[in-house]
Amino acid sequence: MTAWTRRQIGGLVGGALLGVAAPHIARGQGRPRVIVIGGGIGGATVARYLADLKSIDVTLVEPNSAHVTCFFSNLYLAGLRSLASLTFDLETLAERHGITIIRDSAVAIDAPGKGVELQGGAKLSYDRLVVAPGIAFKFAEIEGYDEAAAKIMPHAWIAGSQSELLRRQLKSMDDGGVFVIAAPPNPFRCPPAPYERASLVAYYFKQFKPKSKILILDAKDRFSGQELFQDAWSRHYPGMIEWLPSQFTGAIKAVDVAARSVVTEGETFRAAVANIIPAQKAGLIGEKAGLTDASGWCPVDPVTFESTLQPGIHVVGDSIIGGDMPKSAFSANSQAKACAFAIAASLTGSPQFPPHLFNSCYTFLAPDDAFTNALTFAPEGGRIKTVKMLISKVGESAEARRRTARHAVGWYSAFTADVFGGGS
Fold it and tell me: Is the pLDDT of residue 114 over 60?
């Protein structure tokens, strides 16, 4: 695989097709209005690609002025990137793509009336609504862990202030301490990320705190990329990382913030630094708007990403039930482009094409050692199924792994430019 360019990223999921599907709005007819809730990867992508059609009014509702990417944030924890390098000003979407950005939060959705109520009191109307709320946490599933506890035992699963808190704790930790990572049950955002985090923090410890250990208390008995991670841990960090599956511990039951300890079914583990990643569900506005089912996630049509529970509302990103598609940034970007294409067709009568759905991820094991996967998906029988899968293998040469790490940097630049409208 060669280095990534923005053109490659943009063309992967039918984004280029939006150009040939330019809508035809009769002169004098009001432009269709699309509201997008959420300025993360999925929301920013669908807003940007719809706005580029120049014939649909797009409003993005997002309380934050900038987005910090979760992917690559483990590099920040290891001191290998700055948080500023992972932060993207959403104003670029307004300046370069004509998107109206409202700095507020959606608190209610009137699906029959096609309206959105904002926390600040404003009410907006739409022809189509896209909801991209990301994830929320099931705090109640770990006794003693709530939003207040997360300020002592950070989850760092939404990049930003939580990442900064965990970084500070790791830097101030005494050499010889134990860093405990509580890995969540499936499904959750970015399946390889807890184990990438262990890898990169181990790299940091190896440089600055070589007596320290990392203990992963997992809610699962298997995890994504397990063979690749365990091979890398034995090569780079022998004896530093210990992984305990759920069948050994009975999973995490509680935390004691004051004692900084993690309680499993049969044992209590004391941590110098504890990183508690709770079980997850769809973002709260999805639940409030009736977009979630009993699973806590949002079921959607796999072609249009329109909710199967609330017609006229589309959902993209980590909050959906994505079939075989993992909850990843690239998946969200791919879904958003397919969604934009479907919305353009429904509002303007432009041709409807089958969606092309992809996921591409890079995972670091050390600064010069990474693995990658590239997956192709297609709708089948009402769900999204894997069509093709390419993934790095255990035993690849050191040069191949270094090359993958270099490609990851180019992938990140091209991908974020595609999402947030940067670059030329």
Answer: yes
